[in-house]
Write a structure and sequence with these properties.
Elements: H1 9-18, H2 37-41, H3 43-56
Length: 58
């Protein structure tokens, strides 16, 4: 997946400099995506993995 930061780059840079976590809202149009169906099928597992990493702080 590729993410483009449309606005707020200064906030992202400040958080990265301070070592703070950053929350990003991603909108994904599965019907119009260039991703393969197998890639889209991996999304729920990836979200769970990311949620677990946030809970443990890793």
């Amino acid at each position: 997946m590729t993410h483009f930061l449309r606005d707020g780059h200064h906030k992202l840079e400040a958080a990265a400099t301070a070592g703070r976590p950053v929350r990003i809202l991603s909108l994904l149009a599965l019907g119009k995506s260039l991703a393969e169906p197998a890639d889209c099928a991996r999304l729920p597992a990836l979200r769970t993995q990311l949620r677990s990493a946030r809970a443990t702080g890793t």
